[in-house]
Design a protein that fits this description.
By secondary structure, this protein is α+β, with helices and mostly antiparallel strands. It is built from three helices and seven strands. A five-stranded antiparallel sheet has the order 1-2-3-6-7. Strands 4-5 form a two-stranded antiparallel sheet. 33% of the residues are buried. The chain binds ligand K1U and zinc ion. The site of zinc ion has 5 residues, from α2. Zinc ion is lined by residues 94-96, 136, 140.
């Protein structure tokens, strides 16, 4: 396995739409494994391929709490095929927007169709944290960051801080 560098905003690659995977083959399975290793080390609870500079529709995540056994999920071409009308706020973070957190309101429950590591079509019904992570990661595949849901004032403040961090190598 290999650790992959995580891109941080502002980076034009984070705003691009990723391309569907044709078949989940050995190279996609390796990408999924490398992404999981990178995510656990970060540490994070999700990661999308564009965050490591790969413009393919692949995401990995693990909604397990620290006191639970790991529950890694590997998804290619995930698509939300149903979302609830009821919504819930959650304070989100992002490995590509380091040290910045804010509340995003999203549908409370979603159904997601995807290809698993054996190239089989599967569906998952998600609520709670799993639903939040799935929506956050699928947004990355469409070039959307959680800061895009915030006011332009908050978004620009965060992006200014990140530009300064990149310039000076300092923390926020
Ligand atoms: O996509 C990413 O940038 C990863 C992101 C996923 C995410 C977090 C919160 C809400 C929605 C999606 C992260 O993992 S940020 C780090 C984080 O939240 C965390 C890290 C260690 C333990 C628990 C949480
Ligand atoms: Zn993110």
């Amino acid at each position: 396995m290999a650790l992959l560098p995580i891109l941080t905003a502002p980076d034009p690659r984070l705003t691009k739409k990723a391309l569907p995977v044709e078949t989940v083959d050995v190279s996609i399975r390796k990408l999924m494994d490398d992404m999981l290793e990178t995510m656990y080390l970060a540490p994070g609870i999700g990661l999308a391929a564009p965050q490591v500079g790969v413009l393919k529709r692949v995401i990995v995540l693990d909604p397990a709490r620290e006191d639970e056994a790991p529950r890694p999920l590997r998804l290619a071409n995930p698509e939300i095929i149903w979302s609830s009308e009821d919504t819930k706020p959650y304070e989100e973070g992002c490995l590509s927007v380091p040290e910045q957190y804010d509340t995003v309101v999203r549908p409370d429950r979603v159904r997601v169709r995807y290809l698993d590591p054996d190239n089989e079509i599967r569906e998952i019904d998600a609520d709670g944290l799993l639903a939040v992570i799935l929506q956050h990661e699928i947004d990355h595949l469409d070039g959307i960051l959680f800061v895009d849901y915030l006011s332009s004032l908050k978004r620009n403040m965060m992006l200014r801080k990140l530009r300064k961090m990149k310039r000076t190598g300092a923390e926020a």
